[in-house]
Amino acid sequence: MNARRVLRIPTFSSHRRKGPVMRGRALLNEAEVGPKFSRQARMATEGFPVPRFFCVSAATFTEVLRPVRAELDALLAGLDTADAETLEKRASALRETVLAASVPAAVAWQLYDAFDEVFGPDAVVSVRSSVVGTGADVGEDSAHDAFAGISDSFLYVTREELLDRVRQCWASGFGTQALLYRAARGGTQHGFAVAVGVQRMEFGRRSFVLFTCDPLTGARDRVLAAGLGIGEGVVQEKVPVDHYFVSRRDNAVRSVLAHKTQLMEENPGQLADGPRTVPAPEELWDTPALTDEQIQQVVMVGDRIEELFGCPQDIEGTFTADGRLNILQARPVVLELDRQRLWSNANITESYPDVTTALTYSFAQRFYREDFHDFYRLLGVPRKALDRHEGELRGMIGLLRGRVYYSLSVWYALHGLSRTFPLWRRSFERMMGMSPSVTHVRPTPPLTDPALLPATAAATARLAWRLVTHGAAVKDFETWWERILTAHREAAKTADPLQLAQLMRSLWTEVGDRWGITLVNDLLLQLHETLAMKMLGRWVPQADAGLHSDLLCGGEENRSVIILMSIVEIAERIRATPGVLDALAVKPAEEVWDEIDRDAYGSDLADRMRTHNHLHGDRGLQELKLEVPVPRDQPAQLLRIAAEYARGDLTRALLREREAQARRAGERRLAELLAGRPLAGGALRAALAGQRRYINMRENTRYGRSELFGFGRQVYRRLGADLAARGLLEKAEDVMHLTEEEILGTYDGTAVTDDLRGLAAVRRAEFHARGAELPMDFVTMGPVRDALPDPNRDTAASGTLHGLGSSGGIVRGTARVVIDPHDLGDPSEDMILIARETDPGWLFLMLSSRGIVVERGTLLSHTAISGRKFGIPTIVALPHATIRIPDGARVEMDGAAGTVKILEEDEA
């Protein structure tokens, strides 16, 4: 008789015995039941709908096989997993050895005793194995190794079959696939055990697998696969499967439905035969496997499970005929995060819109490196740590199909060097305009981590000191920058090409030692903005979304507002100067500027425009793109902008009054909402005052960045002219298609090519042949250029569109889609500006608009701040707005709710 059949199967339950069977809280012991079952136990204790189960411990596996361990070790000795035939024979012998091992009577008694008590003697169960690692080896379904499908599982198991199925689970630890898997992963063939889970069988009628992140890239959108019948059909891909892609941005569901002609279910007459594939009822063939309500239920439960375990999960479950949800398994989604890259241009595109040249990209790349190196140093990150991350510092932005993107994976890695990052991670993500679909899956170590408390205390104290001394530090920075920039500009006037190259390197050295204070300001702004939003949400939850924006108006004028007021003042002078507007109506702006420059309209206007360009000439459209001239290079730009204001009735007094009215209205509303709560009102106003203060500092220092890029623009235009004169470039403007180091290296002997002409020609052709724009946010896995997504272009559509409301107000008007502000022509009186993004140079156009809608941006982007500052209803982050909103259409926008309704299209 087979040794597996000699034990009499008990038919009764006497009392619970301790030993091989793990039940209750003992199932949380991962060392005995493995990660797979300990997680099921943890989910059950947290109230998730996990069917009841018990486990046969890993120690039982070890004890049962102890008498045959020498025989097993001999079969494993010299195992060659590259020899398929020999491997199969060895695996067969190993399995037979395990199956023949004697099971102590006490083990069998407790196994059947638990079965009867937990399920009842007539129950049907599933029996699943789980490899448990020892030492450095990890177990099945661990955070580092999914191990999925390697161990055996058995469905529809009756009491009579129970012991045999447990033996077979033990034997599967030595199966061919298990041996190969461990060898391939570099694991040992000896240091493991097998736990066995016995769980009540649920007769599923709709089953699913949910990934709480994209299993291919790690993007945070959920991927849900579902089919008819039990989960085995979905997991093993034996039945047609629907796919649902659920966005984390708005929970929108994109469905790809299969023609479901088959399903997998039990054989009612012969359960022991296991599941079978059968034809599906015809009425179900093209019906979604899951209803909308079931999809949302699964996603909600999946998000909670992910939160429980702190990382993305691969979750299996089923719905029974009565609609009950059962969670059968959850394992970590194993991602190779060192191969993952998160990309976004949600915020950076306002600085570098559309296709960007090699010179601008390399200049910006250097700026980010110097800026953030100093920032991290100010936060207390040791220089040695920064040296180890030099590659990341040089890779904070990427150039993908000619467009600049943040490499967010790098940002997370670098920010994580500061122990204060947990304080500002969420506000950082909000300020960057990051989609919930594209965030890092690795949790940030909490501030309370005992092992890191000394470092956390030191970093937090350092940040507090920065807060106390920040105002003085910013003033010191502004004084320093004015002195350094003036010195470099003076030296550049008489410098030869080599000296210009040396001046550029010198300025970068200076920037790298001081510019980080501007990022400290951004950090303090983020913290105050987060604090103010939390206070508003807690104390005045009934307030409309525009209240926060109104309360930020007023106060000291920052550099951006001063520049705008200067342009409006020039507009007022143009309006008062006879003949200027008439001349502009019939002559190019360049010709009229030449006349003004010769004092043809009096010296007052000419002097005022020269003064503006001297003080503010680096502020213009796309001012951070070195290939785009600014008013300092082309004074006619200033004339063109000011003339637009002059044709209307815009004045400095009107702008200031508009802002003051918004602030007064906000203060009145806040006083009403906080009546009788003076302490709350005082605390909130203090937080808002801090936010206003840091916004002003930010706008002031941002112009310093404009000046830095302006200096670079002048240096490289001069060097381009020199290279063209030497015959090294076909034309001077081709310098924009070379990188900084290629240009500077040509003069100081560090360049790696002499064929600048050929290099520039290749880059110029690439610049003009760039393909369609990539999505705003996406994730790549592996070599980046091999993993870029297909551009997602929506077609124009009617109806209501949704973005991020950032400045309140409901207005109607005519949509004007503007890609290049130079091509707009005359703005209409009821224009609602629709753009991909804006930069500070767009202010003149923004102020001529009744409302503003942009595809990109955040609540702290320039567009949003400007909209709030001047009381213009504004919506940011409305995907593909320039395509979905037809030019000339009548639209209604709600700047608080973030909605745009297309009323009618221009039929002309």
TrEMBL record:
Residues 32-333 form the Pyruvate phosphate dikinase AMP/ATP-binding domain. Residues 829-898 form the PEP-utilising enzyme mobile domain. PANTHER family: PHOSPHOENOLPYRUVATE SYNTHASE-RELATED, PPDK_N DOMAIN-CONTAINING PROTEIN. This is PEP-utilizing enzyme. It comes from Streptomyces tauricus.
